[in-house]
Design goal:
Largest sheet: 4 strands, antiparallel
Shape: elongated
Radius of gyration: 38 Å
Helix content: 40-55%
EC number: 2.3.2.26
Distance between the termini: 106 Å
Pfam family, one: RCC1_2
Number of strands: 16
Protein name: HECT-type E3 ubiquitin transferase
Keywords: Cytoplasm, Transferase, Ubl conjugation pathway
Subcellular location: Cytoplasm
Length: 836
């Protein structure tokens, strides 16, 4: 007991263990072939000593130094190394000489100067490749790489052999073995740190892996590079498994994740003079005009060959290794994550840009390649959501998609499949992260129009049914709203809020799916869109006014959130939600001063500390300071407990954040929990009842499939539009009628006044005057086509705006000064409608 084992060797079903202190060699396991060295074929469950002529040189005279050995007739031996494999057992021993101290190898300690057991990618191999191709001028490897293992030679690379064939053969061997790749470029932050490989740590130095691979592919001649890629495809990626015997095998996939072999151009590259790689000299140099696409440089015609195979290998993993790999990807530096996403994005764009396939099998092959790339992007998108430093969701957009497919048709087909519940076919709509905000807005509008058409069709059928039956049962049994194709709201300007809530309360929820029409009492205008725009502008301004007590305005951010002390009923918040849904449903931009947290909750996500920083910057910064404070006196410095104090009609009210929160002091150990509970209170518990009512109303109108496609910030931009106005884009998207054209003198004066003389506030007033809103849609001015036409009036008349058509009647003024004056007066009149 207590003896130290310094060597262990394993065969197929037996094990050896060496205790050098006593000179004893133990064996246990299966002995059917006498592999235990006991002189019989008996199995041993426990370690048993093997008799032999070996001793410990330190204790030659000790009784325990030899077991059952008579040294009078034989020489003693000291065991140096033990070996075992299959059903065999071997040992390497040295004859003991009197007075000589011989130590067995201690394999518990790793010696950097000792040979490695397997081949790996390391700085030495780059140096030896560089030496073999000295004619090629390359930047020296970074010093950090050299210091990692400068004294560690590669196993089978002789220090005296720099022959290209021998060196390249070793590199090819590495890329033909997942085990070799898994042992390459391991972290050396601390001795043996890579042995900590587990579910949370992969142990691969990704920076080193990226740098060394880039240099290797740069150095290798084309024919060798092509052979290396073929070996990787045939022996590693094409033979990938659903699972692996060890978690360390997954390190090879992380090693490849940063490889330049995955680099992908966005569009096909046509090389008119591709050399015959089979006729090239193995010692020839790489082309000095090196491109960052090794697969193309090797002579392959398909640059996405490795990336597609890598995607398949990742996607086919079983859930258990797949979850481990996802955790490892969350530890990946953002630049490598973004590079992977970019390459996958380019691969899809590349395939879409290829000539259409004529054969069915070729079309299915292209579709499968795109699907595999999208599945990998879907994984990375999920990983990015949990990444401590996520990349922008814009990185996942496929901007060329709208030019390659009919988004409207694709979305309609996808909707039909979702509603039918039948067999699902491949659709880009299953991967909403590839669509930009404008494309998603188009899908939402399509779904809204389809629903409106369905509602109008039902209304027409109801009207026909009523007309057929009314002679028999009378018309009093029918409500006129069921036969109208529109949902009409009639309001008074001086009582717009109460009239609106009354209209919504009396309406049938099915009417919300119809096309909205608004009429102001005693006004002549017919709503073709402009009246509705002003209606939402006015009603939202009153509804969200903090004076009503429904919402609290935070002074620093100027944003609104549900008031903890509101006295309004749930029904009022239900109506507010319906109104917000109607605005989106009818493609109206409204000025909602809600933080991103509101749209995050509507999409089923949970707000966090960053959302609180946006809503209440003062409290958010304070909580961040609490988290950043590391001193032991935190409780004395901050003097906090698990409560929050609110203003309840002028009286401070203390709310516990958890049970018995008044008696729980905030300390270093529980400060994270305190912040979590505080954020939870603001966004969940303090507004639970009014928010649920608001959400219910909102989803009554906008509860379709398309809403789930949006990111929170995209949904926010869809609702409130953008305050950033590209006025040059507005000018480019303006059309003219009559005698006006872009170089007409009046038009030149008009743009000079608007773009260069007006202030920012005056420009916004003009936008509201012309379109009914001072914000820009999510699609930019490409979705706002304005038209300028002349009329027969002169200098005494003001410009007239037709907001329903974004049409401006601009008189032919005699000078720029009169135009500026009249336009300034006109933009002050942004409320009310009349016939002109």
């Amino acid at each position: 007991m207590g003896n130290v084992v310094t060597q262990i060797a394993c065969g197929r079903f037996h094990t050896l263990a060496l205790v050098p202190k006593t000179g004893r060699l133990f064996a246990f396991g299966q002995g059917a072939n006498a592999q235990l060295g006991m002189g019989d074929t008996t199995n041993r469950l426990l370690p048993c000593p093997i008799k032999g002529h070996w001793v410990s040189s330190h204790k030659l005279n000790s009784k325990e130094s030899a077991v059952g050995t008579d040294f009078s007739s034989s020489k003693p031996y000291v065991i140096r190394r033990i070996f075992s494999g299959g059903d065999h057992t071997y040992l390497l021993a040295q004859m003991y000489q009197t007075g000589e101290i011989v130590d067995a190898d201690d394999l518990r300690n790793w010696n950097r100067s000792s040979l490695q057991s397997i081949l790996t990618v390391c700085p030495e191999i780059v140096e030896q490749l560089r030496s073999a191709h000295t004619a090629l001028a390359l930047p020296p490897p970074i010093s950090r790489c050299i210091s990692l293992s400068s004294s560690r030679p590669l196993t089978s690379l002789s220090s005296t052999s720099n022959e290209p064939m021998a060196i390249v053969s070793k590199v090819e061997s590495v890329y033909s073995s997942l085990g070799c790749l898994s042992a390459s470029c391991l972290e050396e932050k601390e001795p043996n740190s890579h042995f900590k490989t587990g579910r949370e740590e992969h142990g691969v130095d990704l920076d080193l892996a990226c740098t060394l691979q880039s240099q290797i592919f740069h150095i290798l001649p084309k024919r060798d590079l092509k052979r290396l890629i073929n070996k990787l495809l045939d022996d590693v990626l094409s033979t990938s498994r659903l699972n692996y015997p060890s978690i360390e095998c997954l390190r090879g996939l992380m090693f490849l994740a940063v490889s330049d072999l995955l680099n992908m151009p966005r569009k096909p590259i046509i090389d008119e003079a591709v050399p015959d790689v089979n006729k090239m000299d193995i010692t020839s140099e790489m082309n000095t005009n090196f491109e960052p696409y090794p697969v193309l440089s090797a002579g392959f015609s398909t640059p996405g060959l490795v990336l597609n195979a890598y995607s398949v290998a990742i996607n086919r993993l079983d859930p258990a290794p797949s979850k481990i790999l996802d955790r490892w990807f969350t530890k990946m530096q953002p630049r490598y994550l973004k590079k992977l996403v970019l390459n996958l994005n380019n691969l899809i764009s590349y395939i879409l840009d290829m000539q259409p396939a004529s054969a069915y099998s070729q079309r299915k092959l292209k579709e499968e390649s795109i699907r595999q790339a999208l599945e990998f992007m879907k994984r990375l998108h999920r990983v990015n959501e949990n990444h401590p430093n996520p990349i922008s969701y814009n990185s996942f957009y496929l901007p060329s998609l709208k030019d390659k497919i009919n988004i409207g048709s694709a979305f309609v087909n996808w909707l039909q499949e979702c509603n039918s519940g039948g067999m699902r076919f491949f659709s880009f709509c299953d991967y909403p992260f590839v669509f930009d905000a404008a494309s998603k807005a188009e899908m939402l509008n399509i779904e809204a129009r389809l629903t409106m058409q369905q509602a109008m069709s039902q209304a027409q059928q109801s009207a026909i049914f009523q007309s057929l039956l009314s002679p028999f049962i009378g018309s009093r049994m029918y409500d006129g709203s069921t036969t109208s194709p529109y949902f009409t709201i009639i309001v008074r300007r001086d009582n717009i809020l109460q009239d609106t809530l009354s209209n919504l309360t009396m309406a049938n929820p099915a009417d919300f799916k119809k096309l909205l029409r608004v009429k102001f009492e005693n006004e002549e205008a017919v709503d073709e869109g402009g009246v509705m725009k002003e209606f939402f502008l006015l009603v939202m301004r009153d509804l969200l006014n903090p004076v009503y007590g429904m919402f609290r305005c935070y002074s620093e951010s100027r944003m609104l959130w549900f008031s903890e002390s509101t006295m309004e009923s749930e029904n009022v918040f239900l109506m507010v939600g319906i109104l917000c849904g109607l605005a989106i449903y009818n493609s109206i931009i409204v000025d909602l001063s809600f933080p991103l947290a509101m749209f995050r909750k509507l999409l089923g996500e949970t707000p966090g500390l960053d959302d609180l920083k946006e809503l209440d910057p003062i409290v958010g910064r304070s909580l961040q300071q609490l988290l950043d404070y590391d001193n032991a006196d935190l409780a004395d410095v901050f003097c906090l407990n698990f409560t929050v104090t609110i203003d309840y009609f002028g009286v401070n009210k203390i709310i516990p954040l958890m049970e018995d929160g008044e008696n729980i002091i905030v300390t270093q150990e529980n400060k994270s929990l305190y912040v979590e509970k505080y954020v939870e209170y603001v966004f969940q518990k303090s507004c639970e009842t009014p928010y649920k009512a608001f959400e219910k109303g909102f989803l009554q109108v906008c509860g379709g499939y398309s809403l789930k496609l949006f990111q929170p910030s995209e949904l926010q931009s869809l609702v409130v539009g953008s305050e950033v106005v590209n006025w040059d884009e507005l000018r480019q998207n303006t059309t003219y009628q009559g005698v006006y054209w872009d170089r007409h003198q009046v038009i030149i004066w008009f743009w000079d006044v608007l773009l260069y003389d007006f202030t920012i506030e005056e420009k916004k007033k003009f936008l509201r005057f012309l379109t009914g809103c001072d914000r820009v849609p999510i699609v930019g001015f490409s979705g706002v086509k304005i038209t300028i036409q002349p009329n027969n009036s002169g200098d005494d008349f003001l410009p007239v705006a037709h907001t329903c058509a974004n049409l401006l009647d601009l008189p032919q003024y005699s000078c720029k000064e009169i135009l500026a004056k009249k336009l300034s007066l006109a933009i002050q009149q942004t409320e009310g409608f009349g016939l002109v």
